[in-house]
Structures are given as structure tokens and as C-alpha cells.
Design goal:
This is Pyruvate carboxyltransferase domain-containing protein. This protein is α/β, with parallel strands linked by helices. The chain folds into two domains: 177 residues, Alpha-Beta Barrel (TIM Barrel), CATH 3.20.20; 53 residues, no CATH class. It contains eleven helices and five strands; from the N terminus they run αβαβαβαβαβαααααα.
Length: 259
């Protein structure tokens, strides 16, 4: 959290005071030094401290890296670990492998958070269930799909009658969905859809929480028609940066800025 410690403490304590009982803490680079203070404050506030391991695809993001990160976070006092698939890149069979590994080595619950973006999330959740995942993140159908999470109704139905049956009532879920569908229409919000540009996440790897901001920024600049060009440029920039980063001589160790 890139704020002074006193702001972080006030935020966490006020959030817990207002009824939040689980605080999810993450760093986009899996740099646990940036998570330590938030974990400590959350524990002191009496809330459940859930630490995250961010999933992506790159030469340095190996299965061993994810496991080591999770183990260190558990040692730091995390009450549970969430595998955070920000860009919907976690394929079903990799999901099974990762969750199985975490369940074999961790002593805390394992949660999985996938964005729908590329359409793999439901399959990844089913394989994660087979591997013993404790919780998966979903959304009511009017708020699902696109850059959001997969619909809870689909996941519940897919698991019905299996050893992983959630026991949730589909009828009740659709009553909840109707409320949000009416609210969506009232506010004039669009339904989540998976566009071709979203499906290209396997190349551009823009997280679900960022793609909508990217679109908004292009709209403000009257450049939305150049979205495809931007998404084509992102992987090129990443490759060029990675080439320079890994081939240059070692520099002094970087340390996070202290406030």
C-alpha cells in the first residue's frame, strides 16, 4: 500500500470497525516487503488477513516462485492465501497443479480469484475444486463475465451433484441476480461481455481491473479506435524491457521507499 503507515492503519481499523472481517492484501509484483505492514495491522485489528500470490506468465514466474511466496506469507502470519489471477491467464490444468501444490504444503485455506476475461475461469475453478481449493470468487450473473468474475450460478450448477457441491440454492441466487439486473438497468450500466480485445489477454496480459481503465482513458483522449494498436504495443514494450532488464549487469539491490 503506497501510503504512510498511519494512513494504512487508519484505513484498516476503520474498515474493520465498519464491518469488514476479511482484508485481502496483495502486491502486484509479489514483493512481500510491501505486504508486511498491512498484514501486521490487519491482525492487530482482529480481522482475517488474507495474503495473495499474484499469478502471471513470464520466464521468472515459476511454480516454485509461487510456492515460496505463499510459504513466506504464511510464516508472516497470513490467515489464508489467495491465488490472484488478475488477467485471467490461469489455465485449468495449471490451476489444478498450483492449488494441489499449495494444499500439500500450506496449513492455511487456499482461495482462488480469477477474472473471466479470456473465458478460462470456470474451467480453472472446476479443476481447482478437484485439487481441493477452499474458496473461489464469483459474481452474480448481471455483474459477471467480461473483466469481472465468472457467474456464481454457472459454477454452482457445474458442481451440483459432485463431491464439491456448494449446497447453494440456484433459485435464491437468481432472486439475487434479478435485484442486480434491475439495478443495472436503472443505472444504465452495460452487461459484462467478452470482446475480442479481451480474449487477446493471452498476449497483452492486461489485468481485468486495468482493462476498463485503459478503455476509459482512450475514450477521454478520443482515441478508443486505437485500442487494438495499444494492445499490440504492450507485449512489444514488455519484451523489450525484459531483454534489457535480464541482460544488463547486476545493479545494487532495490529497496522499497520508506515513508
Amino acid at each position: 500500500m503506497h501510503y504512510p503507515d498511519d494512513i494504512l492503519e487508519a484505513f484498516v481499523h476503520k474498515t474493520v470497525e465498519n464491518g469488514m472481517d476479511i482484508i485481502r492484501i496483495f502486491d502486484a509484483l509479489n514483493d512481500i516487503r510491501n505486504m508486511e505492514k498491512a498484514l501486521q495491522v490487519t491482525k492487530r485489528a482482529g480481522a482475517h488477513a488474507q495474503a495473495t500470490v499474484v499469478y502471471t506468465v513470464s520466464p521468472v514466474h515459476t511454480t516454485q516462485h509461487y510456492l515460496e511466496t505463499a510459504l513466506r506469507l504464511e510464516e508472516m502470519g497470513a490467515d489464508s492465501i489467495c491465488i490472484k489471477d488478475m488477467a485471467g491467464l490461469l489455465a485449468p490444468f495449471k490451476s489444478y497443479e498450483l492449488v494441489k501444490l499449495f494444499k500439500a504444503h500450506l496449513n492455511v485455506p487456499v482461495q482462488l480469484h480469477c477474472h473471466y476475461i479470456g473465458g478460462m475461469a470456470v474451467g480453472s475453478y472446476l479443476k481447482a475444486a478437484e485439487a481441493g481449493v477452499d474458496v473461489v470468487d464469483t459474481a452474480s450473473v448481471p455483474l459477471a463475465f467480461g473483466a469481472s468474475q465468472p457467474p456464481v450460478e454457472t459454477v454452482v450448477r457445474a458442481l451440483k451433484g459432485t463431491p464439491y457441491d456448494t449446497g447453494l440454492s440456484i433459485k435464491s441466487l437468481f432472486e439475487v441476480a434479478q435485484y442486480f439486473e434491475d439495478l443495472r438497468k436503472q443505472l444504465g450500466q452495460q452487461r459484462g461481455v467478452t470482446r475480442i480485445s479481451d480474449m487477446r489477454v493471452f498476449e497483452h496480459q492486461v489485468p481485468g481491473g486495468m482493462i476498463s481503465n485503459l478503455v476509459s482513458q482512450l475514450e477521454e483522449q478520443k482515441a478508443l479506435h486505437r485500442l487494438d494498436e495499444v494492445l499490440e504495443e504492450i507485449p512489444r514494450v514488455r519484451r523489450n524491457w525484459a531483454t534489457r532488464r535480464w541482460l544488463r549487469p547486476p545493479a545494487r539491490l532495490w529497496a522499497p521507499r520508506r515513508y
